[in-house]
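Title: Request for sanity check on Adenine DNA glycosylase prediction

Description:
We are preparing a figure and want to confirm that the structure record we downloaded matches what your pipeline produces today. Could someone re-run it with the sequence below and paste the raw structure tokens into this thread? We only need the token string, no images.
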Amino acid sequence: MPHQPWAISPLQQALLRWYQHQGRDLPWRHSRDAYAIWVSEIMLQQTQVQTVIPYYQRWLEHFPTISSLAAADQDQVLKQWQGLGYYARARNLHHAARIVEADHGGKFPEQFEQVIALPGIGRTTAGGILSAAFNQPWPILDGNVKRVLARLLALDRPPKQAEAYLWQWSEQLLPHGQARDFNQALMDLGATRCTPRQPLCHDCPWQAHCRAYAENKHHQIPIKMKTNPIPHKYIGVAVIWNDAGQLLIDRRPAAGLLGGLWEFPGGKIEPGETVQDCIVREVTEELGIAVDVGEHLIDIDHAYSHFKVTLQVYHCRHRQGEPQPLGCDAVRWVSLEELDQYAFPKANEQIIAALRSQAHPIDLPPTDLPV
């Protein structure tokens, strides 16, 4: 165990007292259903609580049980997730539900080894589910907890370089028989008091025990890792119309970024290439068709976790060829009204909004379509 600079019991008692009076009232805390808690834990990965709450409530209305989620197809699942981002979480949740249905009779397992073996569940998520649903004594170490412990211990290096040490502390701090409340309290402390910027030390139950506060280092800790500049990609995107006034969309391969979502076709603009040339090339490579590139629709800036993109979107007219899923999973001609039936990435939602605000004349003869 790590060196213990102060008694553990006062820390435990102070945090649990604070949580009893100051803990957040969150919908999943009213449940002991492991499935509902599992859904909340997955949604809360890399997403703020207030964003998650309406998605969580709609999700459970649509998929109230593991069995109902397992029976759904991927398009239904991604449509319910649309807007939350990090779509691998939804695909893993769906895949894991099917495993639980097949291997555990639709009942969420209670053994740590079985839980952590499910897709999309790591050590922190497994500990969070098992402690919240069953009060099992498993520690957690999400971003909030790392920050709290780094300040408590005045950690002299980035938390990523001391994870084994922080896991030891998270485990040692767990009070016997109170893992459920203690883990929730730790997360609340990081989310509402020990915040990344301007921590509210005056209202923190651990102020008297916090080494970073005592050493006046609470604004410098946690120490940040050095990061490389974020790359910026420029993407040519085609809104392709056919003679019937329909739009062509394709579905991204299941593996990888935004897997399983529908989008307007396009790709990265190569050095020395115009956006129009990029669109013609990408549409040929991905779909095996020829298009005429017409007028500009919209430019969209969007940031992902490790890079930024600018989408340069143009109207196009389908000229020849039958669309084939050469670089994607599926292709489909749809009307503007039918787009709501499909799950799109956030940036593509802005394209759809632009199309609708433009009141594009899709019901006119092809000669009146943009060319």
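Thanks, this matches our download. The chain has 14 helices and seven strands.
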